[in-house]
Each structure stands twice: as C-alpha cells, then as structure tokens.
Design goal:
The structure holds two protein chains of two kinds. Chain A contains 22 helices and 14 strands. By secondary structure, chain A is α/β, with parallel strands linked by helices. In chain A, strands 7-6-5-12 form a four-stranded parallel β-sheet, covered by helices on one side. In chain A, strand 1 and strand 2 form a beta hairpin. The chains are: A alpha/beta, B alpha/beta. At the A-B interface, helix 2, helix 11, helix 12, strand 13 and strand 14 of A face helix 1, strand 8 and helix 9 of B. Chain B: One of its GO terms (cellular component) is ethanolamine ammonia-lyase complex.
Chain lengths: 460, 263
C-alpha cells in the first residue's frame, strides 16, 4: 500500500512499507550503498511523519520480504503473540513511541508486550526516536539470563573477555585471559575467536578454557566462536561446549550466506541443552549480529539495514540466548561511515534488542578504515552504560590482534563501572573478592594474590 | 601542605607475560585508567593503520618480486577509481574496469587449474611486504604437484570477490587471492588468502576458505604457502571450497586427541 505525505505543498509518495522504512531511516552509508535512502533531508522527515501515522496492525498484513520466500518472515508471522500484542494493537507507530516513553510503560508492561511486537514494528518506532529516547526506553527493559552466573541484572555490567591470538597459541591466549581476569573482566564469558575454524583447533581451545575454569572454579562460561557446524561436531564428541555461538542475520538468504538455517540453529540449540552444562540456568546460545550483514551478502531484498538487523533479533529470540552481541562497527565504513553513524546504530541495536526481549550486549568497535576513533567509542560506551547494556567486550588495550579492529578494553570496563556505579555479575564479583583480585568496594588490589594466580594460570 | 605528588601510575606485576603475546596486556593503570604512555602508543599505532589504508601498490617493485616465478604478470584495475570511492563502494571493488576486461579477453589464456591473484585490499603495505614470498613458494609447490597455472594477476583497488569477476573470464578450476587485510593496530601489514573453487559471479563467502594473518609476526609467509597448498589439494579432492571444507578434513573421532596434540 502506498503512503502519501505532504510538506509545504509537495506530496511525497512512498510505494510500500519497505520503502517508507528505508526512507525514514537516519542516514547511514549502507542504505546509500543499497540505493534506498531518502533523496533529501526533507524527504527523510516526511517519511518519518508518514511512518508515525502507520497503524501497527499494518505490519501484520504487509511483510517487507514475502512470507512465501523467506523463512525469517514466516518465523515472525507464525510466532506473533496476539495476546501480548493486544494492549498496543490500536496504536500507530508514533503512538507506540509516545507510550514507550510514558510512565505507563513500566518494565513489567514492556516485558509483557514484547512477544507481540514484530521486528519491523520495533525498527519502525526506533526510526522516530532520538538517541535519548532509545536510551531511556532501553533502560526500562531488564533482560536477565543465566548459565553459570547471572547476566543483565539492573546495576550490573558484564564483560566478555576476548583473548584472541593470531595463531591461537595457548600461552598467548592464556596471557590475555590472565590479564583480563586480574582486571576484573570475564563475567559474561571468556570467548575466543579462533584464527582457524577447524574441529581440532577449536577442541584444543575449548579444553584449555575448560581446564582453566575448573581449576579455579571461575563462575563463568566459555565459548570458542567456530561455525555452528564445527560446534555441532564437537558436541557430538562430548567436547566441553558451554555456549553455542553463531552469527545470524535477518533474511533467509543472508543466513544461507552464513551457512545456516533456522532448523540448523534449532538442532545446535537442542544439542547444547542435552549437554546440561549450565548450573544456574540453561540460556546457552550466543549470537552475533550487525547492521549491514544482509546487504553485504546481497540478501537484503531492498530492506534497510537497520530493519534487517532487528529481523535477526526475531531469529535470536526463538532460542532464549544467554547473550546477544551486536558487533556494531566491525563491518566497516561502507555500512556505518563514521563515529556518528556507529553511535546511532549502537543505540538503535541495543534498544531494539532489549525491546524484543534479548540480553543485548555490544561490541563497541570500529575498524581502521572507518572515520572513527577511541573517543567515539568512549562516547558510545558511556551512553550504553547509561542505557543498561548487559555486557561489552574486554580486549587487551582495546586492540584485537587477531581480528584487526578496535573494541573496548578491560580498563574501559573499569571506567564505565566506576563512572556509572555499575558492578560485575554477582557470582563473578564474589569470586574476584575471594581470589583477592578486588576488594568489597570493587577496587583492584595489588600484591601477592595476583602473582599466585597468574603463575598458576599459565600453562606449562 | 604543597608536597610534590607522584603521578599515580601503577605497573602490573605480570609484565613478564608480555613475552607470550603481542596483545596489549599488563599496561598498568592510574586509578582505573590507562597510563598516558600506553594511550599515546595506541594513538601512534592507529595513525600507522590509517596510513596503511591509504597506501598504494608499487607495481614495479611487485613485478620484480614475482618475476623469478617465471609466469606472465598482468595488472588489472577494479571499477573503484580512488581510495575514497573504494571505501564507500565495495561493489565497485568487486568488478573489473573495462580496460581490464578487455585485457583478460585478449589473453585467450587456456583454462588453468589455479589462478593466483594479488590485490591491495585494505593494506597495500601488507601486499608489498608479504605477497612476494607467498606467491613464489605457492607456485613452486603447485608446479611440483603438476597443477597448471594461469598468469599472475595484480589488481589495484580490489576486493576479495573480484576473484569471481576474473573467474568469469579466465575459468580457472580454483582461484587464490592474496589481499591486504583490514589493518589492525599491531598488524597493519597482514595479508589474507581466500580460496574459491570454480569462481564465478554471484558466489557468497560461504563458498570460500580463508587463511588470515599472514605476516612475519603472525603466520609466516612460507608456512602460509604450505597451508594454502594443503587446502588447495583438499579442495581439488572434494571439488569444492567453503564451509564444507574444513582445514583438517578427514579428522575422525578416534583420532581426535592425537590430532589435537599435533595441531
């Protein structure tokens, strides 16, 4: 259905919902690359004004990618929770925005409504919101998950310790793990991106992390981020797989480019559950996403990259994930050109994920060919800390020597915790105190305890 | 009252662990923050990486490095006319410009087993430092194994998928592209190798295999060539590349632990 909107005597026509969503999107290079952005500043605002008037029920009747040809669309429509939707079903997108910010929309009500919201509704409303709106509503959403510790409690911020090494050297990885633990990182998980995706290399790393965790009774979980088909093979061989990782996207075709389908994810999820390794809970999937992945696989169907991203969250929420990570600036300047676009996208992803009921964390990051630097990361980190992000990355010195990009560091995590009064996951914090790494006020201790720990931790 | 203050920087006791990794560990702290010395070292590395992104292939030098291999060498260009356009339009970097298409058509080169491509990607510096060694060794090994080789192709402003555009015209059974990777702070000279079996337009990344971090401080160029050759042989055996081809293909349950020890 076409949408019309008149500004100063000129009537803009938007052919369908897909085009309206694209033109209403705040400017980013990926949509320009796809050739779907508004042609002027005025057209963008006209699209936002037109979008504000669209009833939410329209989204249930008009799919941006056809039901018949895309399994993600089928998942979205088939799992839509009509009862959860009913309190907001009479709203337009604009009314939803006002309601989300109102005091009627408490944490509890947002949780109840969440399964009734489709990703396209959530993407649409985010396009009408300013950065502060995205922060304030996300802050109201509390998404708590459990495996060996508890993530997402209000007032807590966790860190994925990311000890990558360019050739997967055990000692090199261990050195970074030790550094991270002694700086109080690692409560979200210890997660390695292997340089080589092979069953042998992945097994070796899994066994090493498992041994480390067991010897020191660290209340955390590990993950080696190999392709899900590799992880499946390893689970069949009873390797110690805690979290099951996969990159996902928001269209069937983009997922195919990752070598996955929804049923493959389901198979891996069930295999993970059958291992029964979680002690506090059974959230065990770990998904990574990022705006631009569908376009980069030429699988976006003319849908803007932010809407595609939120569709990936619809895939994620089927599997009750432990953590979801939008790797926001990793993809490069052709999708998010500079610090401004990365910051906006980061706040959108966090808000949309949280509203969809996901335990959102973020790899606050950029590559060296993007127009961004560590100052931009400080800004996004602070904003996401205020917005209640579940976890961030902890990379030694913010410099990932394997993946060649910059993220946030162990020091950055300490900064945001101190600046905003946030704490580690409770079980992990207890462990840090018991080991003599920090005191009860969260200050890092120096002296004997650390030395004892790092001598014992380093593999022979 | 007005006693001189110390700066407050506390070193970490585990600085000795730095021998095991180039990662920025044991940085020390002041309060909870990074000491200035480390902060400025980071900025300098970032400056080097930004400079690498804007570096250019030195075609004459590169040709001289590759000449001993004894294969013809041709220079191609993508449709990205400048680095700034290259950065914003990856689609242009995946397509050959008209002159290059004409050149390849005129070659009338018989379809070879392996086509080796060298492209600047995001760090021409990486190519200038590492590609010569990898290519020469790879060619030696391929010739020993009796594979036929297409001319060496050097591509300016190229992306990985320009492999497919070349595949459309030269029809090799398999193509290897050596390309400058996105520069990191401690590795602005890191080369990647992507293997594509039966390259042709329209392929996506799950049809390729990648070996990354090829540089003196990472995977050494000579070892990288061996690894690439190993994958090439597996690819010809299975007649495919991509996620169905694992680097240790053939690994079965009984051998898991032994092979893991060796890995």
């Amino acid at each position: 259905m076409a949408h019309l909107f008149t500004v100063g005597g000129f009537t803009y026509r938007f052919d369908d919902l897909k085009q309206l969503l694209a033109k209403a999107s705040p400017l980013r290079s990926g949509d320009t690359l796809a050739g779907i952005t508004a042609h002027s500043y005025e057209e963008r605002v006209a699209a936002q004004m037109a979008l504000a008037d669209v009833p939410l029920t329209t989204f249930l009747n008009e799919a941006v990618i056809p039901y018949e040809t895309d399994e993600v669309t089928r998942l979205i429509i088939d799992t839509h929770d009509v009862a959860a939707f009913s309190p907001v079903k009479s709203f337009t997108v604009g009314e939803l925005r006002d309601w989300l910010l109102s005091d009627h929309a408490t944490s509890e009500r947002l949780r109840q409504v969440s399964p009734g919201l489709t990703p396209e509704m959530v993407a649409a409303v985010s396009k009408l919101m300013r950065n502060q709106d995205l922060i304030l509503v996300a802050k109201k959403c509390e998404v708590v998950t459990r495996f060996r510790n508890t993530q997402g409690l209000r007032g807590h911020l966790s860190v994925r310790l990311q000890p990558n090494h360019p050739t997967d050297e055990a000692k090199g990885i261990a050195a970074s793990v030790i550094d991270g633990l002694l700086y109080g990182s690692g409560d979200a998980m210890i997660g390695i991106n292997p340089a080589t995706d092979s069953p042998a290399a992945t097994s070796r790393l899994l066994l090493m992390l498992n041994d480390l965790r067991e010897r020191f009774a660290i209340p955390t979980q590990s993950c080696v981020l190999s392709h899900i088909t590799t992880t499946l093979q390893l689970m069949e061989r009873q390797m110690p797989v805690d979290l099951v990782f996969q990159s996902i996207a928001g269209t069937e075709k983009a997922n195919a480019s990752f070598g996955i389908t929804c049923s493959l994810l389901q198979e891996a999820y069930e295999a993970g559950l059958s291992l029964k390794r979680g002690t506090l809970g059974q959230n065990l999937m770990y998904f990574e996403t990022g705006q631009g992945s569908a376009l980069s696989a030429n699988a976006h169907h003319g849908v803007d990259q932010q809407t595609c991203e939120v569709r990936a969250y619809a895939v994620a929420r089927q599997f009750k994930p432990f953590l979801v990570n939008s790797v926001v600036g990793f993809i490069g300047p052709e999708y998010l050109f500079d610090g401004k676009q990365i910051i906006r996208a980061g706040l959108e992803d966090h808000f949309c994920g949280k509203l969809m009921g996901l335990p959102m964390g973020m790899d606050i990051c950029y590559t060296n060919h993007a127009q961004a630097d560590q100052d931009d990361m400080d800004t996004l980190l602070t904003l996401l800390g205020v917005a209640g992000v579940n976890f961030i990355m902890g990379v030694p010195g913010a410099d990932d020597i394997m993946l060649n990009y910059q993220s946030t560091s162990f020091h950055d995590a300490l900064y945001v915790r101190r600046a905003l009064g946030l704490r580690s996951a409770p079980e992990f914090e207890e462990w840090l105190v018991r080991q003599g790494i920090i005191d009860n006020q969260g200050n890092r201790l120096s002296g004997g305890a650390a030395k004892k720990l790092y001598t014992a931790l380093l593999p022979a | 009252m007005n006693e001189p203050q110390k700066s407050g920087v506390e070193p970490d006791e585990w600085a000795s662990l730095r021998t095991y990794t180039k990662a920025r560990i044991a940085l020390g702290k002041t309060g909870v923050s990074v000491p200035l010395k480390e902060s400025l070292a980071f900025k300098l590395a970032h400056a080097h990486a930004k400079d690498a992104v804007y570096s250019q292939l030195q075609i004459d030098d590169l040709q001289a490095k590759l000449a001993p291999a004894g294969l013809p060498i041709h220079v191609l260009h993508s449709q990205a006319s400048s680095r700034d356009i290259y950065l914003q339009r990856p689609d242009f970097g995946r397509r050959l410009d008209d002159t290059s298409v004409k050149l390849l058509n005129q070659l009338q080169s018989p379809s070879a087993d392996i086509c080796i491509i060298v492209a600047d990607g995001l760090s021409a510096t990486a190519v200038m430092r590492n590609a010569g060694l990898v290519v020469r060794r790879l060619i030696e090994k391929a010739q020993l194994a009796s594979y036929s080789l297409a001319p060496i192709l050097l591509v300016e402003q190229g992306r990985v998928a320009i492999t497919d555009a070349i595949g459309d015209l030269l029809r090799p059974k398999l193509a290897v592209i050596l390309i400058g990777e996105r520069p990191g702070l401690s590795s602005f000279d890191s080369l990647g190798a992507y293997l594509t079996y039966a390259p042709k337009s329209g392929l996506t990344d799950e049809r390729r295999n990648c070996i990354s971090n090829i540089r003196e401080e990472g995977l050494k160029p000579s070892q990288a060539a061996d690894k690439i050759m190993h994958l090439i042989q597996a690819a010809f055996r299975l007649q495919l590349t991509g996620i169905a081809l694992k680097e240790d293909d053939g690994l079965d349950g009984a051998d898991t632990y032994r092979e893991i020890e060796e890995a």
